[in-house]
Amino acid sequence: MTEIAAATFTSPIGELLLLSDGEALTGVHFDGRHGQAQTPGGEHDPVIVEAARQLRAYFAGERDSFALPLRPAGTPFEVEVWEELRRIPYGETLSYGELAGRVGSPGAARAVGRANACNPIPIVIPCHRVIGADGSLTGFGGGLDTKRRLLDLERGALALSLG
Questions:
Q1: DSSP 8-state secondary structure symbol assigned to residue 61
Q2: Sequence-ordered list of residues with C-beta below 8 angstroms from that of 123, at least 6 positions apart, any chain
């Protein structure tokens, strides 16, 4: 079994728990909600160090995409949805129905929504860019306020401070 390194990253939207298997980022969790015990030295894991650096730049408005090795665990359908999420341009949104069409499953908006909810690497895999068909903000693991703040940041309407 692969050992998972974990370290906390203090962001403008709260504490994020970053997880790495030593080769790829495997998780980003809000407010320690994952319950993963900290691995001694996890903050020195090269994947976590690079993820923290890129997240800092993202929150400062200096980065609009991530170049990290990722290893999200999920079903083939979930992985396909997550790959499509990465194609949504920075600052833009897409409805669940539109996303379902992009993965070749028109009419499967609910299944896409479930896959979106299971995204283990939010922000980096930008599930916050998916909204309701009527333009409303719908479910997000970090909460709707956090989703709104991330979308505002990407639209240039908000500069988040790293304190």
A1: T
A2: 16, 28, 55, 58, 150
Let me know: does 29 contact 19? Beta carbons within 8 Å.
yes
Phi, psi of 124 (to 5 degrees): -65, -45
Which tokens belong to 24?
A: 């790829």
- Give the H/E segment covering residue 146: helix 144-154
Q: Note the helical H segments in 40-143.
A: 46-59, 76-85, 96-102, 109-117
Residue 109 CA to residue 98 CA, distance in Å, equals 8
Q: pLDDT (tens digit, 9 = 90+) per residue, 61-109? A: 899 999 999 999 999 999 999 999 999 999 999 999 999 999 998 888 8
Q: Model's pTM, two decimal places? A: 0.89
Active site residues: 127
3-class DSSP assignment, residue 95: strand
Q: How many helices (H) and strands (E) does the chain have?
A: 5, 5
